[in-house]
Prior knowledge:
Helices cover 0% and strands 48% of the residues. By secondary structure, it is an all-beta fold. The termini are far apart.
Amino acid sequence: QVQLVESGGGLVQAGGSLRLSCAASERTASRYALGWFRQAPGKEREFVAAVIWTAGTTYYADSVKGRFTVSRDNAPNTAYLQMNSLRPEDTAIYYCAAQDPPQESKVRSLQGYNYWGQGTQVTVSS
Length: 126
């Protein structure tokens, strides 16, 4: 059972930056796909970005492409979401999730992920 813990959320002004972290409890998390999703009040949870851990292949939602960057670090078994040029519409709870085994065709799908973190709040003020 993989445990994922997000951190790094907070309050930031529009145009600012935040970096979210997702720490995985197991070293074998390096074989997974790691995805970032977000859920705004009254909206469904949506895909933001993902990385195939071993290959480093990345995927992004159109709404964040060019502003957000997903990455991973084998030591200390942590994935990151660097968020730049933040907008008020980026306000949401951000979740990381792990997909084992990684399936490129499912990295954008909520149903494709086996494990989820508890989420971290990101609030962007205008």
